Amino acid sequence: MPEQTTHTPGPWTALPVPYMDGMFGYRDWVSVADANLGAVAYVPGTTYPKVRANLALLLASPLLLEACKALVEPFTDIPDLSGFIPEVRNAVSAGRAAIAKAEGQATHAQH
Known about the structure:
This protein has 111 residues and is of the alpha+beta class. The protein is 37% helix and 12% strand. The protein has a three-stranded antiparallel sheet, covered by helices on one side. The mean pLDDT is 88.
């Protein structure tokens, strides 16, 4: 069985990191930090709309993981979902796949 990845618990926040401006040719760096202000990731170029959108998704990651777990949890003891409508089967399967990927259990071929 694959080892479960343990990540830094949320919530995460974005903090400006002015001393990194110019590193690797990028400006406007932020640190994605946990509640204790420990860095989870550094994101450069946050004035660009696409980078800001990616940053928002990164910041929401812990909450999205917990939401997926809450939605999938009622189906934990139901491995065969064939008795459910396709929308439920697809949603639970997608949730399980997202959780596996977030916890490092998914293969690289899964998206």
